[in-house]
Design brief:
Blueprint lengths: L2 H5 L2 E19 L2 E11 L5 E9 L13 E15 L2 E15 L13 E9 L4 E4 L5 E11 L3 E10 H7 L7 E16 L5 E18 L8 E2 L1
Parallel strand pairs: 3-5, 9-11
Antiparallel strand pairs: 1-2, 1-4, 1-6, 2-3, 4-5, 6-8, 6-10, 7-8, 8-9, 10-11, 11-12
Length: 223
């Protein structure tokens, strides 16, 4: 895969409000990076709370205080965070462009406040399941190539007929997906008597295309 392809295989666009305060994240070659949480509305009035990482060079003289309305374009990336409790996958939007907006509602006109496009490879076997209400879901893990021989590992979730179709895909299949970044809380049991609330991040797929596949899928197909 060429460098040009890598630059366009992971594109995320968000519009929402800053939640909380800007925090120092890390420094690379003298360049500092900061993180904040972005509150993004769904059409159903539910909110997603999405982590954003941004370079100090993009936010000089920019007010990113709590409640500030912003537009962010970048890539959805994964990082391994090694700590005493084990290895944890961190998912964040790495900002390539950020803009402070005057107000949120008027900016929504003609714009999707939460969209993402990925072109990657299935790196785990799909997991198909149904909810207690009979809704079909398939969990997918997609590896998206990045520059310098790195990859981002992005959890994705397909619904309905997309779930049925993607349950038959094989490890190594090259697929493109379009959808939105979503957050959801869940309970993780840490003992017989205690559990903690965790947040999971994943891509909710609205459309997918199989570009090249193993013997189980012979032709490119859009669903």
């Amino acid at each position: 895969m060429t460098m040009d392809n890598i630059n366009v295989n992971n594109e995320a666009s968000l519009m929402g409000t800053v939640e909380g305060e800007l925090k120092f994240s890390h420094e690379i070659y003298g360049e500092a990076f900061y993180s904040f949480v972005m509150r993004v509305m769904r059409l159903s009035d539910i909110c997603d709370y999405i982590n954003v990482t941004v370079s100090e060079r993009l936010i000089q003289n920019m007010n990113l205080s709590h409640g500030c309305v912003v537009s962010v374009n970048g890539q959805f990336r994964s990082y391994n965070n090694y700590c005493e409790t084990g290895n944890r996958l961190i998912l964040t939007v790495f900002a390539r462009d950020i803009e402070v907006l005057d107000e949120l509602e008027s900016e929504y006109d003609g714009h999707n406040p939460n969209s993402i496009y990925l072109n990657g490879f299935l790196c785990k076997a799909p997991v198909y399941r149904t909810t207690p209400f009979g809704r079909e879901i398939t969990d997918l893990l997609i590896a998206v190539n990045r520059a310098y021989n790195k990859s981002d590992y992005i959890p994705c979730i397909a619904w309905g007929r997309n779930a049925r179709y993607s349950s038959g895909l094989s490890v190594g299949d090259n697929i493109k997906i379009w959808g939105r970044i979503q957050s959801r809380e869940y309970q993780k049991r840490i003992s017989e008597e205690e559990s903690v609330t965790k947040t999971a991040y994943e891509i909710s797929i609205s459309k997918m295309e199989v570009c090249s596949a193993s013997s189980s899928v012979s032709d490119a197909e859009i669903i």
